[in-house]
Amino acid sequence: MIRFENVTFTYSGKAEPSLSHCSFQIKPGELVLLCGVSGCGKTTVLKLVNGLLRQEEAGTLSGRILINGRDTSGLPLWEISQSVGSVFQNPKSQFFNLDTTSEVLFGLENRGASHEAMEKALTAATKACGIEALLDRNIFQLSGGEKQRIACASAYAMGSYVLALDEPSSNLDAAGIHTLREILIRLKSEGKTVLLAEHRLWYAADLADRVFYLKDGILEQCFTGKEFLSLSDEKRREMGLRSLSEIAIPPLQKSSAQNIGGLAVQGLSAAYVGKPVWEQLAFCVNKGEIAAITGENGAGKTTLARCLCGLHKEKSGKVLWGGKPLSRKARKKTCFLIMQDVNFQLFADSVLAEAMLGNDVADAEAKQMLERMDLLPFCEAHPMALSGGQKQRLAVACGLLSGRKLLLFDEPTSGLDYFHMCQVSQQLKKLADAGFCVLVITHDGEFIRESGAKVIDWKGGPAE
Amino acid sequence: MTGEKKFLALDPRTKFLIWLFTNVVVFSNAPRIFFTLTMTLYALLFILAGKAGSMVKLLAGYAVVLLAQRFLLPLLPSAIATIFATVTYAVLIFPCVMGGMYIISTTSVSQLISAFRRMRVPENFTITMAVTLRYLPALREDVRHILDAMSLRQIKGLEQRLECIYIPILMGTAQTAEELSESAAARGIEYPGRKTSWHTVGFHVQDGIVAFLFLAVCVASFLCKGVLG
Question: Which end of chain A is more exposed for a tag (fewer CB within 10 A), N or C?
């Protein structure tokens, strides 16, 4: 049982509390879904449950948090970790070991479990999370979905009766999310208490016993699962929440017929360390169009993006712009990639300097572009101080200032709530209306619908 | 890293011991023949561990630097030659480099941790070491993304590139380090009691044989000083 009594938490260095006067009680075996827009306090609740915010330097806490009847305030983290298992959002940084089996058993090694106990836990976790085929593998060679299964297994193996999952679906494709759902069903049937913070609600909404809606650090509403499912679409959007039912990716369409204006790909093949990734791709994207590239993890979407931008060398085939073939070098100057983790592509110490970096433009021109992207008020700020959406727009500004005509977005909406997802789709529409060619790699059905992107059959050739 | 059953597996402590012997051979300025001997032994170990590929790459790198030192260095202007000379230092200590690579490429993080614990290395050092090893592949991925981004932004020139790589790496490192330690803390790494290991480490016959071979080379290198070239 988890119980919050009038809990207020303020991160150190912040004036406003991230969670205020929060009280609730969760019964054993309940699955509780925490939702709300970015920054609403979902993660704070989870980190208070699993003890990560318990160190003094993290912030100040008032109120009481009880787990299984025990006040957790004096407990060391390792003791809390015996009863609460955690799964985090970022598959890159939640693994401590390099091989899967060690990772699953890491929590048990830490508490000095015997070899037999580990063997038992490994068998149970393997069954619960379906990881037979993944044991004894290098973690870095797994797909996002497989990594998340390992993460669930390692929380499960510790035998905790409470599991705290923080946006576990952020980096997963549809197939990965369906496996995650199966794991949730399994945990529920075994009577585990599950706290799940999510933006993507469709895969878990019908499993939830209760749904907590947080806004600006306040637990605004508690729904029963049934009440939550019966929310009208209008109300749900007003709350800034993503769709409650799965929005399937529309069927593939033939890409537009070749037109002299935009991008044309002809017979393009690529290999990665000697192995073919995809072969004989052919499609066209015209100016003013938003084309979506979809497919499972591992289908080579990122390789395609890198290839179009001239970052990956093709094995054969052509990339044409305006009817003329582009060399790899020329592609680097025509196409621009906005990466999934946009932090990697911001280098300067102010927004204005960022816009001018590597671009041969005057101050006034850069400022004009920043204004167009609603970034002018921040022009002296450090790029790292911007919000995720602002960073993304800054990257777009940099691309446009260097005269790029084709903009590629790699998963621009992963981990975004409804408001921010709509913002990105507005942005894409604006770019298309201004005559740019927009390509977006995504498996977000709701975003495809919102942005009106055309899901193209990138392997099947353009329309005649 | 896995499949130890099929290949020759050594206890991590043996790996450190033979690395120590190698260091003695290299830094005691032993005759060249003993350099070659230790390198041959390591080459064998790489093959027996099923890591022939990494060994070939390593030796190819060695050959390139060696050739450059022989033929390119005399032709370079002295300023550049000085810089390059530091690179060629790696050639002088190459057996140690090989030994280090052998440890890294054949030891899993958890084996390393359990070996350190057996050797009663302080827990603080053990965890720092494990995080560092764990972080390297993540860092490599980050750098790849950043290089891509720089190449698209037309950021050129060594100085500007170095300046640009700095901020995202720093930000990325800070975040990764925080998330990694959270994930470790949430699984009880701070537990003060005795810990156990799934991958049990222990000495076997092969450890004895390998340690003996390296020790023999080490001792012989001292005995033969002044006798051999």
Answer: C
A68-81: string of b/e by CB count within 10 Å (b at 16+)? Answer: eeeebeebebbbbb
CA–CA gap between residue A412 and residue A415 (Å, rounded): 9
Q: Is B3 on the interface with A (CB under 8 A)?
A: yes
Instruction: Check if the interface score ipTM surpasses 0.90.
Output: no
When mean pLDDT is compared across A199-213, B103-117, B197-211, the lowest value belongs to: B103-117
pLDDT value at residue B4 = 42
Find the distance separating the first CA and the last CA of chain A, reported in whole Å. 63
Four-way CATH pick for A263-455: 3.40.50.300, 1.10.340.30, 3.30.465.10, 3.30.70.1130: 3.40.50.300
Higher pLDDT, A453 or B161: A453
Q: Residue B148: which of A50, A110, A311 has the nearest Cβ?
A: A311
What's the Cα-to-Cα distance from A60 to each of A35, A66, A220, A454, rounded to whole Å? 23, 17, 22, 49
Residues B87 and B142 in one domain: no
**pTM of the full structure:** 0.83
Regarding whether B227 and B177 lie in a shared domain, the answer is no
The pair of three-digit structure tokens given for residue B105, joined into one six-digit string: 């490429």
Residues of chain A with CATH 3.40.50.300: 2-238, 263-455
Q: Report yes or no: A72 at the B interface, CB cutoff 8 Å.
A: no
Cβ within 8 Å, pair B3-A344: no
- To test the contact with chain A by mutation, choose from B187, B189, B191 the residue with the greatest count of A C-beta atoms within 10 A, namely B187
B136 close to A (CB below 8 A): no
The 8 Å CB, 24+ separation contacts for A115-119 are A115/B196, A115/B198, A115/B200, A118/B196, A118/B198
- Percent of chain B with pLDDT strictly greater than 70: 96
**Which percentage of chain A shows pLDDT scores above 70?**
100
A2-238, CATH topology level: Rossmann fold (3.40.50)
Cβ–Cβ gap A98/B148 under 8 Å:
no
Is B195–A111 a contact, with Cβ atoms under 8 angstroms apart?
A: yes
Measure CB to CB from residue A81 to each of B167, B180, B187 and give the nearest one.
B187
Interchain contact B171–A (C-beta under 8 A)? yes
Higher pLDDT, A96 or A43: A43
Tell me the pairing of strands A193-197 and A31-35: parallel
B191 to chain A: closest CA residue: A78
The answer to whether residues B155 and B188 belong to one domain is yes
Total structural domains in chain B? 2
Give Dmax over CA atoms of chain B in angstroms. 61
Domain that holds residue B175: 112-198
